């Protein structure tokens, strides 16, 4: 008699990880959350992140594997480089031009 085979597979869709890559980030300059958008142009091989609040932007080279987060972190890196404050104990002043 009707052996009910467990054909009642509960509709468990294989969890497709909706891997929505984050493409908005918070701005390192104005600190607005999600104000930074990333665009990657693989034709021109340029990736750009820009804050629509304070209009800061940064662009870099892009390739197939470039992800928004990469561009963003690169930007952060750059910012940190640029913002390296004139720390007092930064003895290595190889270029102390008019330090007023
Ligand atoms: Zn900003």
From TrEMBL:
Entry keywords, A to Z: Metal-binding, Nucleus, Transcription, Transcription regulation, Zinc, Zinc-finger
UniProt GO molecular function: RNA polymerase II complex binding; zinc ion binding
GO-annotated biological processes: transcription elongation by RNA polymerase II
InterPro entries recorded: Elf1, GLR_AS, T_Elf1_sf
Protein function: Transcription elongation factor implicated in the maintenance of proper chromatin structure in actively transcribed regions.
Similarity section: Belongs to the ELOF1 family.
Name assigned to this protein: Transcription elongation factor 1 homolog
Organism: Brachypodium distachyon
Gene: LOC100834870
């Amino acid at each position: 008699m009707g052996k009910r085979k467990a054909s009642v597979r509960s509709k468990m869709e294989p969890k497709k990880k909706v891997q929505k890559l984050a493409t908005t980030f918070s701005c390192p300059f104005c600190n607005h959350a999600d104000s930074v958008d990333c665009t990657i142009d693989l034709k021109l091989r340029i990736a750009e992140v820009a804050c629509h609040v304070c209009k800061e932007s940064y662009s870099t080279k892009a390739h197939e594997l470039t992800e928004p987060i990469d561009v963003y972190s690169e930007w952060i890196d750059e910012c940190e480089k640029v913002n390296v404050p004139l720390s007092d104990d930064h003895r290595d002043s190889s270029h102390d031009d008019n330090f007023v």
